[in-house]
Structure formats: structure tokens, C-alpha cells
Amino acid sequence: MKVASLLSLASWVIPRFKDEELRTIQISQTEVLDVTDHEKLLLKRQGVRFFDITAFPSFLRSKEGSKVVNYSYPKQLTNEKKVSEILERCDTKAMFEDLALFTNFYTRYYKSEYGYESATWLSNRLRNVTKSLGDRATQFHVDHHDWKQFSIIVRIQGSETPENLIVFGSHQDSMNLIFPSSLPAPGADDNGSGTVTNIEALRIYTYYLNKTQDWPRNTIEFHFYSAEEGGLLGSLDIFTHYAQQNQTVVAMIQQDMTGYVEDSQNEHLGLITDHTSPLLTNFLKRVIKKYLNIPYVETKCGYACSDHSSATRNGYPAALVIESDFSKKNKYIHTTMDTLDRLSFDHMAEHVKLIIGTIAELGNWRFERLSNE
Ligand code: BES
Ligand code: ZN
């Protein structure tokens, strides 16, 4: 059904109130619509994908077609020892326990009180994970204007070129697509899995740093975005702000859905090739070949499906790694059936290897900006 007919159907079912607040969404390169919250949900249920650009429409529209800045990444990977030393501590039991607690919240819907409580749990867990680093690891809450669930940034400051940010992202919110405000949304795979993948990578990297004091030259950040399901809202706030502040993000790697394996005889990762940076994605291929036990396939979302798009949208090189080929992904997401019993923790551990391999190779890398021809 066309978007226009969907919208007229929506306004027939629930008419717009006079003075009802409208949100601005961008559904393609050229189409921007003003819709109510109810219309937005109806579009999402019908599979229409969008950025919610209410907070900065003119800024984003003016960046239409803005070029992603390119950097060179290592061709030869040489940090086997460091990678295996860090990965020794990777513990699927710890990941299971984190995910069990995280999916225990009735929902992590960004507008709900539960979504605020789950963010508070996550913040405390991250504090606990990094506490041995004292003030060498800092945590920031990013409060958003229109909803209560905050985003979280954990930063390990680079020792020599702290202005270069390497970002590992994942969204923390979940959503039941039928009735987000009243039905449960365990969101084990979408995106509890990406969240615990990043927590585990941070936990074992912290242990390594504490033991070796081998601080990275560049800054490493872990981001836990709020309100991805509302149209990439949390990450748009963050990356738009970073761009306005002229921050340098040299790589952004998003983990969204890392736990589902449809066919264990054909286990692989999915590297997304649309709305992503080819140079960064090619570098990740090298990391996978060198440090993981399973192969990758190249695949497409077909739309701006996760928070990496907020980074590319602001001119930063970004990649998205998912659990499999897009066609073999978990079919239970956005429902009450997105539960942890359907997931493989060994598969999530492969995603952890990708993060650790990337940190080991890029943490001390001397980034050079390439000309954009
Ligand atoms: N986790 C999904 C994106 C995804 C889908 C990743 C399949 C890997 C495989 C994400 O939470 C989501 O639901 N995205 C929205 C679009 C977004 C712009 C609101 C979607 O796919 O409908
Ligand atoms: Zn989702």
C-alpha cells in the first residue's frame, strides 16, 4: 500500500486532534512527512522505514548527500597475541546472565518507565564492568528532549591522539510493534544481543587494560543508544551533536542482532553493504578472516535499518554487522517471542571477537584522512 493511502487510513481510524504534535520523518532521500505518533507506528507496522528528524530537520536536510570522510585502515593484521590474550576471558555465561537480567524488563520501550529503568540497570552494569579503571574510563548519560530513556557513552580516552574516536554502538531499546506502550517486548535479539556483545567486549578489554596498562593511542567509545526503534532518535542526537562539535569519528561499528543462527551448519556473520562505508567494511572482512571461526556474507538491509545510518548521515564512516544474511535473520523480533532461548551465545562470542580484533588493530593505528575523490 502507498504511504499516502496508509496515512489517510490512519487518520480515518484515529483522527488527528487539533493542535496534536506532529513529528517529522524522512522516508527516503527525497520524501519528508509530518505525522502523528499513531501514524508513525502504523507506518512502521507496514514496514515503512524512516529517520525521525523532528529535532533537526533543516540540519539534516541540508546535509543531503554529504560525503563520508574516508580513512585508511590496516591491510596487514598483526595483533594475534593481544587478541588471543584479551579473548581468553570471554565468557558466554556472563553474557547469558546479562541478557537474562536485561530481558527481564517488561519492555525497554524508550517512552516507558520500564525503558528508563532498563537504562538505569545498564548504566550500573557498565559502571561495574569498568570500575577497575577508575577515572580512565568515563561514563556519560545523554538525556534526550522528548523521552525519558537516556543513551549511554563509555569513553576510554586515547593516550596520544584522543581526538580520534573509534565507536562501538548498539541500541538498548526494544519495542513490541503491535502495542508498544502496553505489550511486553523482551527484545532478546533486537537488541539485547548487541548490547551484551558490547558489554562483554568492554568487560574483557577492561580486564586487559587493567592488567597490562597498554592504553590505546586513540579513544575507544562504547555507545548504547536509546530510541532506535522510534527512528534512530538517540543516535541521531549523538552524531548530529558530534558533527556540530567537529568531533572526529574514524570508525563506527554497530552491532544490531548478534544472536540468532537459523542453520547451525551454515553459521556466518552478515556484513551490511548499504548505508555503510566500503573501506571500513573491507577492513572488517580482514578482521573476520583473521580472528573469527566463522565466515561472513555480504548482505543488505535495503534501508537505513540501524544506528550506523545516523553516523554515515553525519559524514562518519560506519559499518553494521548482523547475525547472518539479512534473509536468514530472526523472524521473532518486535514480538513477545524475541526471547533468549532462541539465541546462540557462541555466536554472540564471535561478534565479541570482531570487536576485540578491531580494537587491537585500530586502537594504536595512525589514522590518515584520504581525499574524497
Ligand atoms: N534490529 C533492527 C534492524 C535489523 C533488522 C538489523 C534485521 C538486522 C537485521 C532495528 O531495531 C529495527 O527494527 N529497525 C527498524 C528501522 C528503524 C529506522 C526504525 C526496522 O527495521 O523496521
Ligand atoms: Zn528493531
TrEMBL record:
What does the record give as EC number? 3.4.-.-
Needed cofactors, names only, are: Zn(2+)
Q: Does the keyword NAD apply?
A: no
Q: Which processes are annotated in GO (biological process)?
A: proteolysis
Is rRNA-binding given among the entry's keywords?
Answer: no
The Peptidase M28 domain, residue ranges: 152-356
Q: Name one GO molecular function term.
A: metalloexopeptidase activity
The record's similarity note reads: Belongs to the peptidase M28 family. M28E subfamily.
Q: What is this protein called?
A: Peptide hydrolase
Lineage of origin: Eukaryota, Fungi, Dikarya, Ascomycota, Saccharomycotina
